[in-house]
Structure formats: structure tokens, C-alpha cells
Amino acid sequence: MGEKKGFFGRLVSGLSKTRDQIISGIDSIFTGASHIDEDFYEELEELLIMADLGINTTNRIMEELRKKVKEQSIKEPKECRELLMESIKGQMGLSEEAYRFENQKSVVLLIGVNGVGKTTSVGKLAGQLKDMGKKVIVAAADTFRAGAIEQLTEWADRAGVDIISHQEGSDPAAVVFDAVTAAKARKADVLICDTAGRLHNKKNLMEELRKINRIIEREYPEAYRETLVVLDGTTGQNAMAQAKQFNEVAELTGIVLTKLDGTAKGGIAIAIQSEFGIPVKYIGIGESIEDLQKFNADDFVNALFDEGE
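Above: the chain's sequence. Below: its structure in C-alpha cell form.
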């Protein structure tokens, strides 16, 4: 059982708000409807949209469901439950390459607006990679948020990894330059950079990320690149809007979705992948290092529908 079960259990309880509000409604449609008709589909569709799956994702899932019901000539609404779960899982998939950065020299950038748990995610990720036997360095390149450097320093101490930082307000690109130099000199496996999160001015953010990217490309061309955007699951559609904006200024390779335990909008994990084609790679459901976990679509949907393991 061990760790996996612990996290699955926490995921089940973490998704309880979404389940209470949405899935119980879906279940009552499955058990309450006498047959599969337009009303049945419409009610189901409405509930998926309420779970923050978004219109497009819901449409795709419903299309697939109707198709399967037809193909398999299913008559009983109850039998649709499995099909619905399959269709939802089908919207989310991770490639073999998803965590390639773990196994080669790499630079991982984390971006996200203030308050989403970005610095915390950097710390947790660093701790996990360190536990895998990797040599990790973190860079405090979110230099404009008050307290960010201190906070990351605490996480680095807790995880037992080196940190490169300048004082508050200094140039983030300069911090990244020093961090890259240190990563090469100390033969680090992974350099994780806590980078800017200000989205109110896309132009500045774009400039800053461009500068950071130029430095990494010039000084450390051999490093594998991973750029993760950290989004707060409790903000639902607002997280979608942020994903869209960050995707315009950076080449995102994955999403870290935090605070899923505080929300009835757990469907956002499905919507975001389906909408942008950017995979959710990690989800966070709590404060400790092991509360940031790799995203597993099967586990997620099973926990959402409380199917056990």
C-alpha cells in the first residue's frame, strides 16, 4: 500500500467538494433516468460544465459518449457511467517523455502569478528530485515578490539543496545566469528556477522570460528545458485564462495544479489539458513535500468518481 495509497486517499478526500457538488448529481442522473434520451444528455452536459470542464471539453466528452452509446447500443443510463469515465480519461494523457527532465541535465522554469503556490512547488519538486538521488540547485529568480527569496531559502534548507539568490528587486536574468554557472560548475542534474509571476503586464513578463531563455540557451545549450506553469485549482476558469496568457508568453511544457483540495472545481484539471493540449504533470493537495504528486489521469478520474483503486 504505502505512499501511493496515502496520496490516493488524500486525493479522494481532496476532491470531495467537487464530488459532492457535481459527481453526486451525475450519479443521480445515471440512476434516476429511466432511459437515454436528449434530456439525459442535456442534464449530464450541464453538470460537466458546472464542474468547470468548460464548454469545449464538455462537448468533446459528450460527443464521444453519444458515439459509444450508439456503437455499443447501450440502453441503460447506468452503463454510461463507465463510458463517461473513459471519455474523460481520454481527454488527458501524458506521453512517455513527460518527465524526461528527471533523467538528464535539465533546467526547469516555474512560472505563475503570486499566490498560486509557485515557490512552494519549486521547493517540493526540489525535495522530490533530491530524494531520487539527483543533485539539485534552485534559483530564486522571482526577485520582485516580497518574501519569495526567504521562502525559497527555507524550502531549499528543508530539501537540503543549494540555492542561488541575489537581493530582492535585483535582475532575475542575472540570478539565472549565476545559477546556470553554478549548475555547470557543481555538475547539478537539475536546476529549478522560481521565475516571475506578474501577468498584469504581459510585455514586461515576456521580455523577462525572453532574457532568461536567452541566457539559458547561450550558457547551457545542452540542458533539457522544461517550463511549468503553476495554477491555483480553486480559481477555476480564472486558471484557464492564466494558462492561456502564460502560453502566449512562454513555451509551456506542463502544468502544476495546486490547491485541488480546496475546490469544487476539480474538473479544471481535465479542461485545461483538453483545451490547451498542455498536460497537467503535477497536482498539489496539501502542504507537505509529498503532497505534490505526478498527475495520473486514471487515479484522478477514479478519485473524482470515488471508484477506489
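The mean pLDDT is 88.
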